[in-house]
């Protein structure tokens, strides 16, 4: 009778003929002789993980026996069409038994970004926002800025392009004020304000704008998943920012001719930088594999490591560059931003290599279920484990 193989052993381990870029197999960590393909020793999740976590910090590859994880389930790089290749595990990352900490990926230079188009989106809550779509020279993804408040403007979008017509400008969203049928100019109409040099309209706000750097999560934002709080965080950030872009009592100007309050009365507003780094940068397919590993007993960090990904494969240079483009960098907004996050890594990373952005305050994102004693918000066994892992292993400050 054929011997039953371990689910973790590839039937025919395939060894890459050439090392995969940024991901060398550790030849010093020779697998035990009993792990050859014709001697199928069973390894539990914990065995695999213990080996990964006990590995010396200077060796950036978790020391998994080669035959245990099939190359068939470990694509050579995290997805995204990255132009600049990055190692699978960041060199800053250190591993210790029981914990897995990492520093943010700090880039030496910010990528170049350009806002290609912007459009007004009335939302189901009644609030309005402007969706900005960006291109960049670091990957080929469509990263987004969701802008609450009329005064936050993109420099690259507003820049005049050679040969463009007024209609071209309006179609790509480089207009001031509101579009309406019959409008012929992208520029000022009667009663509208002049953008300042940074692109932002002068308002004299007393409070700093709210900013959230949000990583894409198809499962949590679209597919109703109760494994994480990503969808809830996105909704909550939008709610807070739409409040922050409403007229405030301190800045409200008297309505002109008894009409609507003018734009000048808007609050400081906010921006959600929506980065297409699904699954903390490993992509949806790999995240779904990680979910299966979690159902088999691993936590979120362990599952990533078993799949030979870093615990967190993200970087935030694009977010910094987009904030600078939106006039929220230290050059145009020296008072700084208020960052909605529980992740301490993000704070330093978003500030950029030369402190291009200043984070004035961190605003915590407490899960709604925790705030309401379970009356509202997401409730599941999975999310409790997910949040505990973020606090215990990733240093998140959920308070
Ligand atoms: N690899 C992996 N990614 C996950 C998992 N659950 C959620 N994610 C992804 O995690 C990202 C969100 O990261 P989080 O760690 O929840 O939060 P954060 O962005 O680091 O910190 P906050 O700013 O406090 O929200 C999204 O891209 C999700 O798709 C999981 O189990 N495994």
From TrEMBL:
UniProt-listed Enzyme Commission number(s): 3.5.4.25
Catalytic activity, as annotated: GTP + 4 H2O = 2,5-diamino-6-hydroxy-4-(5-phosphoribosylamino)-pyrimidine + formate + 2 phosphate + 3 H(+)
Domain GTP cyclohydrolase II: residue ranges: 197-357
Any single Pfam family the record assigns to this protein: GTP_cyclohydro2
UniProt KW keywords: GTP-binding, Hydrolase, Nucleotide-binding, Riboflavin biosynthesis
Enzyme kind, highest EC tier: hydrolase
Matches recorded under InterPro entries: GTP_cyclohydro_II (IPR032677), RibA (IPR000926), RibA-like_sf (IPR036144)
Biased composition (Low complexity): 26-39, 245-255
Residue span of region Disordered: 1-44, 66-105, 186-205, 245-264
Any GO MF annotation of the entry: GTP binding
Protein family per UniProt: Belongs to the GTP cyclohydrolase II family.
Name of the featured protein: GTP cyclohydrolase II
Protein's organism: Talaromyces proteolyticus
Organismal lineage: Eukaryota, Fungi, Dikarya, Ascomycota, Pezizomycotina
């Amino acid at each position: 009778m054929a011997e039953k193989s371990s689910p973790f052993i590839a039937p025919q381990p395939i060894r890459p003929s050439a090392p995969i870029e940024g991901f060398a197999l550790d030849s010093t960590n020779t697998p035990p002789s009993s792990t050859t393909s014709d001697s199928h020793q069973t390894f539990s999740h914990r065995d695999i993980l213990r080996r990964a976590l006990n590995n010396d910090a200077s060796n950036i590859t978790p020391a998994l026996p080669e035959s245990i994880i099939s190359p068939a389930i470990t694509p050579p790089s995290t997805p995204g069409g990255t132009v600049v290749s990055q190692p699978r595990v960041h060199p800053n990352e250190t591993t210790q038994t029981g914990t897995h900490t990492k520093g943010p990926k700090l880039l030496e230079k910010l990528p170049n970004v350009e806002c290609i188009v912007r459009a007004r989106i009335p939302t189901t809550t009644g609030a309005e926002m402007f969706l900005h779509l960006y291109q960049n020279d670091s990957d080929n993804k469509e990263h987004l800025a969701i802008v609450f408040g009329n005064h936050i403007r993109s420099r690259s979008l507003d820049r005049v392009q050679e040969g463009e017509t007024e209609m071209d400008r309006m179609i790509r969203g480089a207009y001031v004020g509101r579009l309406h049928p019959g409008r012929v100019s992208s520029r000022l109409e009667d009663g509208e304000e002049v953008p300042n040099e940074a692109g932002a309209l002068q308002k004299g706000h007393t409070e700093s704008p709210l900013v959230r750097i949000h990583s894409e999560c198809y499962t949590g934002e679209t597919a109703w998943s109760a494994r994480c709080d990503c969808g809830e965080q996105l909704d909550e950030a939008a709610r807070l920012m739409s409040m922050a872009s409403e007229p405030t009592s301190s800045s409200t100007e008297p309505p002109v001719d008894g009409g609507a309050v003018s734009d000048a009365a808007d609050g400081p507003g906010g921006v959600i930088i929506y980065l297409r780094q699904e699954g903390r940068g490993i992509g949806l397919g790999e995240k779904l594999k990680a979910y299966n590993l979690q159902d088999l007993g691993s936590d979120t960090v362990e599952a990533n490591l078993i799949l030979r990904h870093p615990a967190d494969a993200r970087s935030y240079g694009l977010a910094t560059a987009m904030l600078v483009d939106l006039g929220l960098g230290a050059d145009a907004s020296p008072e700084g931003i208020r960052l909605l996050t529980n992740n301490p890594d993000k704070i330093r990373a978003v500030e950029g290599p030369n402190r291009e952005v200043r984070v004035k305050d961190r605003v915590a994102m407490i899960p709604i279920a925790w705030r309401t004693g379970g009356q509202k918000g997401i409730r599941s066994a999975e999310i409790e484990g997910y949040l505990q892992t973020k606090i215990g292993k990733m240093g998140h400050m959920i308070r």
